[in-house]
Amino acid sequence: MNMRAILLATASAAILAAAPAAADDTKIGILFDITGPIASFIPPMMDSVTLAIDEINDGGGLLGGKAVAAVGDTTGTTQGAVDAATKLVNIENVPVIAGALMSGTTLAAANAVTIPAGVPQISPTATSPDFTTLNDNDFVFRIVPSDAYQGVVLARLVLDQGIKTVALTYANNDYATPLATGFAAAYKAGGGTIAAEVKHEEKQQSYMSELGTLAKDKPEALVLIAYAGDSGTTIVKEALENGLFTRFVGTDGLRDNKLIEQIGAENLADSFFTSPSAPESEAAAAFEALYTAKFQTTKDKIFIGQTYDSVMLAALAVEKAGSTDRAKVRDALREVASAPGEKILPGEWKKAKELLAAGKDIDYSGATGEMEFDGNGDIPGVIGHFVVEGDGYKQVGLVNP
After folding, report:
1. What pLDDT, on the 0 to 100 scale, is given for residue 400?
2. Can you give the residue ranges of the Leucine-binding protein domain (predicted)?
3. Does domain 147-270 bear CATH number 1.10.10.10?
4. Is the pLDDT of residue 389 over 80?
5. Which CATH number is 3-144+282-370 given?
6. Could you report the per-residue pLDDT of 89-143, keeping only the tens digit for each?
């Protein structure tokens, strides 16, 4: 685990939560996996929270007062997610929550806390297909594509790279298992061969037994679906050290700077990754300008656009509802995110607030794409193709399955 990243993330959370809210301020719940397997993702994502909250307050505030981020840390565990969500709902009395991030922590918070309490929840990053069929009374939304889609995209990309035989290993969790299932079905349907497939447990000291099975028939690459901060880095390191694999294919959980830091860019030159991304658009360019003006660069800062979009959507729904009534906020969310209405881009909170005050319809166009939620609270989204370049990751295209 990257201790510097954890300290930075914790410090960011403390800063956001430090100032007590005034009576007329409105809290937005931020339920993030600040510590745990994706800790190194968090500091730039917390910067996106700051960016959105500052924009709201500089542009007239929220419901006549200021917007305040109430931050809860899931610790990257299901019980931690339940505990943090319970505090946000029952103690902080938030009308809406942005988060959580990992599929397992998001599902735990939703099933145990937010759905029963009737609190709308918008995840920037949770990708499990289980959200599509969740019995949530329309209280749970996400702004990344389902892994059912990313699995198909990953299969298409692997085949397009001319890789006909792979080994597949994936972590036994709510994120990796359905993604691997979708990949395997699509890859085999496209003519690929999976020489060996192993589900592995997280937090093991060694994976040499699993790697021996995976490498037995000498497949061309190892498809590894796991978090780099958990099993992913250990598996790649042991595979390289023992000459078992030299080419790795991963998804967003593995596309972590921690992997490059621990393995070395030169050892990942032939590897590639998929991750939710954003199409080129006026909205994406607006976000890029806003973020870089405040935080220097967007390079290698994964999910920062999705984070900004989730906080802005949460605040727009509250402003549209005209109150902190949770059911009204839920209903308003679809209205501010969907056509028809005047387009609202990143950086245009003040414009949105004025239009809503005048009784006009708005349609938020996000940093990561259009936010047209379907009946299940999903959006289509896009998937990027990433490679390692220098000391970071470079997107070299979008993948159409």
Report:
1. 74
2. 27-337
3. no
4. yes
5. 3.40.50.2300
6. 999 999 999 999 999 999 999 999 999 999 999 999 999 999 999 999 999 999 9
CA distance readout (Å), 43 to 40, 127, 272: 7, 21, 24
Q: 209 CB contacts (<8 Å, ≥6 apart)?
A: none
Residue labelled with tokens 């949460």: 314
Residue where the block lists tokens 């109150």: 323
Give the whole-angstrom CA distance, residue 315 versus residue 28.
7
Cα–Cα distances in angstroms (integers) from residue 388 to residues 74, 183, 256, 286, in the given order: 30, 22, 11, 26
Helix H or strand E segment including 171: strand 165-171
| 386 neighbors 275 (Cβ within 8 angstroms) | yes
Compute the half-sphere exposure of residue 125: CA atoms within 13 Å on the CB side of its CA: 25
pLDDT tens figures, 317-357: 999 999 999 999 999 999 999 999 999 999 999 999 999 99
In 3-state terms, what secondary structure has residue 321? helix
Distance, in Å, from the CA atom of 81 to the CA atom of 99, rounded to the nearest integer, reads: 10
AA identity, residue 43:
P
- Tokens for 224? 């590894």
Look up the pTM and report it.
0.89
What value does the mean pLDDT take over residues 307-324? 98
Q: How far out from the chain centre does Cα 304 lie? A: 9
Rounded CA Rg of the chain? 21
User: How far is the C-alpha of 153 from the C-alpha of 158, rounded, in Å?
Assistant: 9
Which residue spans within 189-315 are E strands per DSSP? Answer: 193-200, 221-225, 248-250, 272-277
Q: In this structure, are residues 342 and 363 in contact, taking their beta carbons and an 8 Å threshold?
A: yes
- Cα-based angle 320, 12, 69 (whole degrees, multiple of 5): 20
Question: Helix, strand, or coil here: 117?
Answer: helix
The β-bridge relationship of strands 392-398 and 382-389 is antiparallel
User: How many whole angstroms separate alpha carbon 199 and alpha carbon 37?
Assistant: 18
Angle at 358 (CA atoms; ends 355, 359), nearest 5 degrees: 90
Tokens found for residue 199: 């589900």
